[in-house]
Write a structure and sequence with these properties.
There is one protein chain. 52% of the residues lie in helices and 13% in strands. The chain is of the alpha/beta class. The chain has two domains: 78 residues; 208 residues, P-loop containing nucleotide triphosphate hydrolases (Rossmann fold). The strands form two sheets. It has a five-stranded parallel β-sheet with strand order 5-6-4-7-8, sandwiched between helices. The mean pLDDT is 91.
Length: 292
Amino acid sequence: MIEVTKSGKCFPFSKGILARSLSITGLPLEEIYKIVRDIDEELEREQVERIESKELKEMIRKKLLESGCENEERLYRVSRKIRYLEKPLLILIGGGPGVGKSTLSAELGHRLGINRIIGSDTIREIMRTILSTNLIPSLHESTFLTHTVVKAPFIDNALIHGFDEQVRLVSEGIKAVIDRGMKEGLNTIVNGVHIVPGYLDLNEREEQGFVFQYILEVPDLDEHIQRFKTRAEGSHRDPERYIERMNSIRGIQEFTKKQADNEGVKVIKNRDMDETIRFIVNDVIKSLEKEV
């Protein structure tokens, strides 16, 4: 049995773990398995019984370069060092309801090795247990229905007025989560409809960590509707509840995009999940390369 040594400790060589470490590259599974198989055969051929972890990483890098995968090699090389950054990594994923924020965040966390993934709806749920409906009704209603409980007779856009009130409240909870992660040096992904550019005072936090913010959108109305139907499968969510209110949901999406434009935050048309993940991973790795 081949052993891998790291920091004086020995671990059994695992093709599964090796393949998983290559997922950051975005290569097709068959190409990943080919690289893993080639390395396994080379170690067997040379009758290696023990190998240093850094030597194994170097073998992977060479295999990637030999295959003409220069960008994938860079993704692999830099991603392996993210956990050793001097400051924590924070990625914020925002966008209107039903654009794929949670699904993307889970895959992004897997690719970058970030286990701490928090949804703004979870933060709102916690705040709701503390602040009653009578005290703050806007906190207890869906984002696209907040305007029905926030009375503002002299406001031109009641939808955005209600949404703004809820976002401001939940943003305080999001800031607390971010600050705790920064203080403890935890790499974190926060996603949700409440991640709206201009509400989180990120300039102060960029000195404490590496901060990346993205807004997702689904430009096509029919595709947006289909997403609600798809995500309802295997859950208790009623897609019609959302589809009946698409005008409000699309209004929130447009407001969030406008905020992103005003704040210089990147807006990504999330037509294809793999392409979106590839864009964000490349953007993060490119920015962090000089740091590692």
